[in-house]
């Protein structure tokens, strides 16, 4: 909110509160300590679990952490459903996003009023993990591949959730998921290897803004490991995250994250050790075993008894938890907290619906608009054909709320014109070739097992085939309009409104066989969990029932596939006589990647592409609407397509918002927050988290994208002119004000997002191609010019200097870029001096590397370099070795066979000046110091350590003669 509301506190009752912790006029720290001092050991421990029980003797109610609220309140019943988080970021509109956050927080209060113990006010949102790779299954949950934009949007959303009261929180946002989390496949074991500069300047940089601005009340630890250590026991939780603010933060674990420490990650032998390490690292709240807190509290009590944890450690965590509860007003007299008066009536309020429509419209990105195809005119567009798999449906995602109503694209456009519609999917029949009987389905709303028992074709034998790519289809039965799922006993049942659930059991593959027959393969994501053993193919039982029961295609039932209605032909028929054709295609959020399931490709499914191509040939005025949770690659846009729009799954008002955009009531202003690559081949291995080395994101990608970061067209045109700066030279503590004139040169009012990038032209290190530094959304009438002022702090041009382990502003020339305009400035900072290896240098602070990985020095803290094969190396550049370096000492660990590390100058095959003999040590955490004489090592040199076998190095130092 803007902060314009004036809050008036109700007076305290005449009588004093019975206990100091009940007195709202005392400092919060005093109140927390008073309450903490009244609690027993068991009560203190109970505060460290997601479900905190009531303490009746003190009049304290139950408290639950974690209400999902990524784009509206989720999982608690019908609520206002806004566009996916990715879509909210597409708006580049801080004010709008803050308003969406405010509604989300307000509705969370409404749900809390219904059930305070279960509908908690600690919201697990927003997700600020960077969208480094568009194949990430949770892409729609985040905001951008850029840390500055992510920080700006998350700060706005967090401020909105919290409200604008100076003392009380409307609700408490928690940032997810700390840190470097961007892969779902085997995510518990994924070890994100992130060198220090990328960790500081990229991954941490996304989390810091909202915390520093007090727009977040905590963070959630992520499932993965970072540089060999699980994040749930990373000391950065306490030492880094908490250093960004003076406000208390409550740091929570992800679901079963602490259990993973002893299970999937096997990092600790016992849960007592694991829980103790997590608390010491900064974790305050364990999200384990659903409502059963006993395993967590028992392990913590064991840790106390074993001396792994002190009571001071427990109390420190409990203070963070209680501090948040005080800020939510839980312990204050009635009438004191204004947010406590919010009732369930606010949920899905009319003004919330209007905001949902506005947000859905503002997040639409106009990717292409040849010859001003859009907007459509009401005068010459009386009949619109709306076709495609997503033409007349809206999908919820895993973290979506339940939509109170759904305005589909077809329905939204039907409010503007006469609409004909076709989903453009094939309707088929399947005949069991062994019996000649057709597969048939129940007409009941609740569905029933599919059977191959129908002797002749009938309406109930029709199956609509939806193509979601990678060979995966869903089958909807014509009998009742429900999607086929895997049911009890592995039978196939037509009972799902849409694909859903943690294990998405509506996924199949219809596999053509050499003899022309087909077999049906079950492809639900529980298959990868091995719940099914080897059985995944459909058989037909003696009673005709279809079930999953064969391990190979050869043992599966053979079906004849008969085409009842061609999806392509149906779509073409619908568009032939229309004034315009709108093809709505895209993703299914439960199938095309989601939590615990990465996608393998970003290519548009072939079946959907076929509809686009056919419709374009049949109707020259074709508009493609892509509705998806991630960018698409491929050659679909190189076809002769006049106009392309992209929307995320935008919630209950999607259809009206699209109609607003297509008919010009809303002039599109959305901009891409991710690079759209031309091909999957442009994407590096998704396990490479070092974006500078891998070439991920617009900052380091050197190819030509399909659509670049920040792209988005308008129905009007804008001209940028007279880019100017208020100073050509700025020192490290200063700032530059950048002004640019923006003119609407078209005939429509519109909004543009002015984006300011910088490029450092000289540096000791590799710098990004460019980097976003500021942006401002500006609205202009036709012919209007406004001067937009943006500010760049020189401190924001800093980067992490590995040679001295601090952020540094270099003396260097920079270019400032706005649109096609550039201006140069000079930043007067400092020149990074030559490396001084006489000081003990952590091995992870290399300048370059090949093949090595980063590992944990100990379970508690520290990062070391590890070689996994001969020939791998690290380099330390521009080292001042003086007149003569006598020896090099390294701290090593090596549970494998004895090996050596070569010391070379100038390159990995450069002059050999020493060889370190690395002995075998007891284990990977047993460190020992070894050294080698150096021969002819002098002057300023690039020093390379080249491994001849497996070994670990924690630190190194040079001794001069």
Summarize the model shown:
This protein is of the alpha+beta class and 961 residues long.
Number of helices: 18
CATH architecture of the largest domain: Alpha-Beta Barrel
User: Structural class, judged by helices and strands?
Assistant: alpha+beta
Strand content: 25-35%
How many extended strands? 48
What is the fold named in CATH at topology level of the largest domain?
Answer: TIM Barrel
What is the residue-averaged pLDDT? Answer: 96
**Poorly predicted regions:** 1-6, 8-16
- Overall helicity: 10-25%
What does this structure look like?
With 961 residues, the protein is an alpha+beta fold. The chain folds into 5 domains: 39-346, Glycoside hydrolase, family 3, N-terminal domain (TIM Barrel); 358-424 and 567-666, 3-Layer(aba) Sandwich (Rossmann fold), CATH 3.40.50.1700; 426-565, Trefoil (Acidic Fibroblast Growth Factor, subunit A) (Trefoil), CATH 2.80.10.50; 718-828, Immunoglobulin-like, CATH 2.60.40; 841-960, Jelly Rolls (Sandwich). The protein is 19% helix and 27% strand. It contains 18 helices and 48 strands. The strands form 13 sheets. Strands 10-27-26-25-11-12 form a 6-stranded mixed beta sheet. Strands 13, 14, 15, 16, 17 and 24 form a 6-stranded antiparallel beta sheet that branches. Strands 38, 40, 41, 43, 46 and 48 form a 6-stranded antiparallel beta sheet that branches. Helix 15 links the parallel strand 25 and strand 26 (622-627). The protein is globular, with a radius of gyration of 30 Å. Residues 1-6 and 8-16 have low confidence and may be disordered.
